[in-house]
Amino acid sequence: MNIIDEIKCKWMKGLAQDRDNTRKRQVESKAVGDYVRQQMMEHEFMRKQRKLDKEREMEDCRRIREQYDREKRLRKQQEEVKKMDARKAHMEHLSTMNTIRVLESQKQEMEEERRRFFENEREQMITGKKEKKTERRRVAQRYKEMVVGKLATEMQEKASKEEKLNAKILAESTAKCEAKLDCERNENNEKNMAMLTAITKHREYKRREQEMMAKGEEQSARDILNAGKEDDRFHWEMQQLKAEEKEEKRGYMDNTLRIQMAERRVKSRLLQKERMDYDNKYAELIGEEEDQFQHYTTGVISAAKEANRNTLPLLRAANKGRWCGVGPITGGMRTDYLAPSANYDKIPNYVSTTVQDLQKLYGAANDQPAARRLDFIW
């Protein structure tokens, strides 16, 4: 009974443990599922967010592109407007210039017409004045003749009373005529003075205008002349600077050549001095060697005399000097190399014991005939 209870208890415990494990696995699987669903939801949210961001970026790009196109069109329209404004301003400028030219030509024509009008008026005035003056004279003459004739007739018909009355009437008429003539003369003079004043003012205006134009042209010519003088002065200064630079370069080259020539002269003098020193030293060496040679020959000749031998060849060789050898110059002296069986016209061959002794002292030590010749070998 106890075993069954124990088995049953163990089975119940195992069953409870299995249920707990199953519950744990379910909880874990649920947690894993929740985590996976959460991750999937997050991934989906991120995907949607990226999609929205991409759509937003595309929308921004599209909006920026549209804004760029609008700005480009606006800029193009502004450029077109500027071009049209510039073209319009140019056309207006041309129109204004044409209008100014037309106005200038009209002004010149009006001035020319005014001048002709003044000339015609002046001529007409002068002609009218002459005609009026002639007419007044003719009228006055006729009037005077008529009055005189009438007065003469009345004077013949009437008495002195009538003569006084006629004289008074004549005086009054004459005064009236003269007053009228004076008035007309004054009016004509005023008109002439006004005309002359207008003509004088016009001439003065033209004269001043011409003077101003002449002054402007003179000032322009003076400015051009001053500019030309300034250019000439600048060109002359530049030429002067170039000449100075050339002179400096020439002076530098001359100094360089003088320095080189001085160096060459110094080198030449040094070389000449070295040559002179060498020649002097060479002459001294030659003199010393000559003295040594003469001392040597004196000793040899003295030895030959003591041996009672013929010293004539030795004296002849001594008189020839130290250049009696046939070999190369060594130490300032020419050595003598005598080949065997060679025919040398020098000292004869001595075969005596004295000669052999001398050869042992001063010559070759072998027994060859050429080696036994006595010679001055330095």
Automatic annotation (TrEMBL):
Keywords: Coiled coil. InterPro entries: CFAP210, TPH_dom. Residues 51-123 form a coiled coil. It comes from the Eukaryota. Residues 13-303 form the Trichohyalin-plectin-homology domain. GO terms for cellular component: axonemal microtubule. This is Trichohyalin-plectin-homology domain-containing protein. It comes from Aldrovandia affinis.
